[in-house]
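Annotators were shown the component list below and the corresponding predicted structure, then asked to write short factual statements about the assembly.
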Amino acid sequence: MTTTFRVTHRTTYRYDGDVGTSFGRAHLLPREGPRQTIREARVTVDPEPAELRDHTDAFGNTSTYFCVTTAHRELVVLAESLVEVAEVPPPTSPTPWEVVRDGLYTTPAPELLDARGYVLPSPRLPPHAAVTAYAQPSFTPGRPLVEAAIDLSTRIHRDFRYRSGSSGVGSTVPELLERGEGVCQDFAHLGVSALRSVGLPARYVSGYLRTTPPPGRERVLGADASHAWMSVFTGSGWLDLDPTNDRLVDDSFVELAHGRDYSDVPPLKGVIYSDSAESVMQVGVDMIPVEDG
Amino acid sequence: MTTPATAGRRYTAPGGHDEMLDAEGGVRGAWTDIAALLESGRTGRLAADTRRLITEGGIGYHPPGSDTEQPWALDPLPLMLDAAEWAVLERGVAQRAELLDRLLSDLYGPRLTLRTGVLPVELVLGHEGYVRGWMRGAGTPPRRELFLAGADLARTPHGWHVVGDRVQSPSGAGYALANRRVAARVLAPVHRRSRIHRLGPFFDAVRSGLEELAPDSARIVLLTPGPQSETAFEQALLASTLGFPLVQGSELAVRDGRVWRRTLGRKEPVDVILRRVDAAWCDPLDLQAGSHLGVPGLLEAARLGTVTVVNGIGSGVAENPGLVPFLPALAEALLDEPLALPAAPTWWCGDPAGRSHVLAHLAEMLIKPIARSEGRSTVVGAELSAAERADLAARITAEPHAWAGQEHVVPSTVPVIGSDGSVDARPMSLRTFAVAEGGRFRVMSGGLAQAADEPARRLIRMGAGTVAKDVWVLGPVAVSTAPVLEIVREPADTLSPRVAADLFWLGRYAERAEDTARLLRAVADRWADFRTSPEDAGGRALEVLLRATSAVTATGPGFGGPDPGPELLALLTDRDRPGTLAHAVHRLVGAAQAVREQLSNDTWFVLGRLEEVLGGLASSAPEAADLSGALTRVLEGLLALSGIAAESLVRDTGWYLLDAGRRVERAQHVTALLAATLCDVPVPAADDLVLESVLITAESIITHRRRQRTGVDSVLELLLTDPANPRAVGHQLDRLRADTAAVPGPDGGVDAALETVERRLATIDPAELARRGPDGTRAALRAQLTGLSEDLWGFAEVLERGRFAPGLPPRPLGPLQAMG
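Structure shown to annotators:
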C-alpha cells in the first residue's frame, strides 16, 4: 500500500535594494529511500538562473547549485515533487541497545562503517554533559534499542513545549534544555545528540509531513513548514522517529535529505552581492496526497 | 689564541645531540667554516648585518592579532647538513608527501583505506579538515590533492623524526628563499667557498608543477588572504618569484561553472589556484558562511573539474597526528614499501590501548588535537598543573578520537647568536618542503630551520619566540648549473581592480607624506626663526602658518597654548591620528605591503628608513631644529621613493595609477594650502613671510624669485595655472589626463569629471582673484578654491568608483529557514 504526495516548497526572498548576483545551494529534492520513490522532482528559480545543476552529495542527497546573474529584488526558489511513500511495518527487534552499539566495531561491513560516522560529534552538535545526562534514563541496561529510542522520543515530546518561532535556526541543544521550548529542528537535534551520547549512530533528517491529516486524525505540528526528525541505526537499518509529534515516521512523511545535523542539509542557503540592507523571507510548504497514487 | 672578546663567544653544547659539535666537543665536518666564524669575534656584526638586510628587504612577519608587520627574525648562522645525511632525509620527505597524497586521493574517492579497515573511520570522519563537499563524484578520475607538502622534523639522539605535517597550505618556503638571500650576503665569503645546493631548482619545479596541472593553458593564480595575513610577505615573494598574480578572493568569481579573475575592464579564466587561504574560508557558499576571503562557487567549479585547487580543499585531514601510528601500514598498503622516515612515537586516543597509554603518561607527552582549531591546540603535558591535567584527561575521555599523544622528543641544539653577540645552544626544528612535479615529489634542498629563543622552550612554532635559520645542504653532489631564478613580474595590463586601487592609494599616501613633511618643515623653520629673533611680524606669520597647518592637514582643533612644540611633534609622530606625517607614512607602508609584488626591492629600504626616523623622534623630546633636521631626512626618503617611481618602474598601467594618485593628492594639497593662507584678512607685516613659507612648502620659491615677481597674483599663477610648473594644479591636471587615458577599462564618467576640474581652472584669473574685497578678505579666491577642491574630490571619487571599485562583499542570501 502506497500513498503519493505532491509536495511544493516555495521560498521567497525580498530585498530592499538590487541584488546583482545570487549564488544558491539547495537540498530541496527528495532522495530515494527504502520508504519512498521519487516520481517527479524539480527546482525552478526566478529570475531565471544562469546556471542550475544537481549532484549527489557525500550523504547521498540531491544537492542543487544555482547562480542568478540578473539584477533582482525578489528571488523565488520553487521545489515541486511527486513522491510515492510506502507503509512500513512497525519495528519489533528486541536487540538491546548496547549490543547494537558494540556491534558497530566488530566487522568492517560497509553499512557499519557508514554508521560509525554518525556516532561522532558534528558541527552543530558538539558533545555536551547535559545532553548525556538527559539521555541516560531512556538507555537502561539491556533495554531493546527500539524501545529505548521510542522512549527518548516520547520524553522529548513530553518535556519540551512546541512553540512556532520560539527559536532561531542557529539555536543550540543546550539552549533548548535551558528554555524548555523549541521547534522540530531543536527536538531532532536533541534526539540525535542524545543518541550519540550513548554511542549510537544517529542522523538528522529533513523532510515534510502531510499538511492535512487523514479524516479522523488530529492535526499535526510542523506541517506548515519543512519538518525535521531523527533517525537511529538499529544494527540492520535506520529507524526514523519524530519527537515533535511523538510518533514513528510512517507514510505521512516525505524525506528530503539526511546528514549529521542541520548544517549538512539546510533546505536553502546562499551568497548574494548587494547593497541592500534588509531581506525578508517567506516560506510556503504543501504536501497533498494525490488520488491516482 | 683566545682574547677575552672571543672567549665569551665560545660555544658549548648542553648535552643531547648538537648540530655543530659531536659528543666529544669536536666540530662536525660540515660546520668547519661556521665554527671558524664564531671564533673570529664577528658574531655581533653578523647579527647587525642580518637585521639591516632584513629591514632593507622589507622581510616581514605579521604576528596574529598585531596591526603591524614586524621584521622577520633570522639568525645569521645557517643549519649545515652534509650531502650523505641529506640524501636519506630527502628520500624520506618525498616518500611521506607521496604517501599523504595517495591517502588523500583515496579518502576523497573510493575510501578503500577505510573500507578495508586500515584506517579507523573516526580518525578521518571525525577530523574537521575532512571536507565532505570535496568528495570526487563516482567515476571521476583521481586528481592532485597534495601539491606542496611541509614536514616539521626534529633530530633526536636516535636520528631525524617527523614531529608534524603541514599539508593544508604550508607556509615557509618563501621565507626559506628570503633567508637564503640574506644569509648568502651576510656570509658571502663562506657562501662562495662552500658547495651549497641551490634553492632555485625547487621553485622552478613549483612553477612547472603548477603548469602541469592544466597542461593546455595554465592560467595560474596564488590565492592570498590579503596583506593582513601572517605570512603576507612570503606570499608576495612567492607570487613574484613564480610570476603568477597574487589575488584575493574578492578578485575571483565563479560563472558558467568556472573561475574567472577580474582585471581592469576584463575577466580572465583561471585554471589553477595555489591556495594560501585556509580551506574552510575558501568558499562562503559551501564552506564557512560569511567568509570574505573566499570565492562563492569555488567548490562547485572544482567539483566540475574546471579549476584545480592545490593543496586540495580537503587536504587538512592529513594534517593529523592521529595518523602517525597507521603510517607504516599505510605505506605498505598504498606504496608497497616500508615507511622511510619515522615520526616521533605517537598514540591515537581513539584506540583504547593508545588512550590508556596517553592518559598514563600525560606529563611526558605533547597532547595534540587531531585537528587544530580555536580552543584546541597542542598542549605540553609537563607544563600542566594537576588540575589542568585532570581536566585534559576528562576532555580526552569525552572525545577520545579527537586527541593524540606524542612522545616529547628532545630536539637537537644549534648555535644561535644573541642580541649581544653571544652564541648559545638552542633547540631547533627543521621544516622541509616537497612539491609534486614530473610525476614525483621533489624536495627543496634546504628548508626553514627554526630555533627557540630560549633553551627551555618546549614548542618551536613559526613567529612565536623563535628565530629562523637558513639551511645549507653541502656537496659533494655537483651544484646544478640551471640559470638563476629570474623574477617575473605580472604583466601589468592584467592588474585587478584591487591592485589598481592599492597602487593609486600608494601614490596618494606617498605624495601626502611628502606634502605634509614640506609643510611641517616650513613651519618648524619659521618657529626656529621666531625663537631666535622674536619679532612681531615673525610671530604673526607663525600664527597664520600654524592655523593653516591644522586646516591643510585637517587635524583640528590644532595648536593651543603658547608653545607649538608638542602639537608640531604630534603632527610628525602620532601614527593613530589622521592627517599627521606618521599616519601618512604608516598608510604608505600599508599600501606598499598590499602590492608588494609590484614594487622594486629598493622601496623597502627607503620605507624602512622613514619609519626609523619617525620612530626615533617619537621616543625623544626634540627641539625645533631637530624637527627640521628629521623632516629633511624624511623628505630625502620620500624623494628617493619618487625617484624609484620615475626611474625604476616600467611605464605600464601600474605606474600610471601610482602617478594618478600622486597628482590628485598634490593638486588637493596646493589648493588647500592656498585656501588656508591667502584668503583671510591681511596680517600687517606678516604676509610676505607667510607667502614665502607657502612658496617653500609648494617647492616653488626658487622659480618665483627667478621670475623676479612679487605679489599674490604671481603666486596664484605659479601654483594654479602655470602648466610649466610641476607643482601647479594645472600641471597635475595635464598629467591626470595622460594617466587616465593609459589605464584600461570602462570610462565610468572619469573623462567628464576631469573636464569639470579643467573647466574650473580655465576660468581662474590670478590677477582678479588676488584682489581683496572691502572687508579685507579674498572671498572670490576662497570660492574658487573651494570649488576646485570639491571638483577634485569628485574626480577622485569617480575614478575610484568607475575604474577600480572593489566590488561589494559577499553576504548571506538572507535568513535561513527553520524547520517546523
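Statements collected:
1. The interface with chain A takes residues 114-117, 121-122, 125-126, 132-133, 135, 137, 254-257, 284-286, 289, 296-297, 300, 303, 398-399, 401, 807-820 of chain B (CB under 8 Å).
2. The longest helix of chain B spans residues 497-532.
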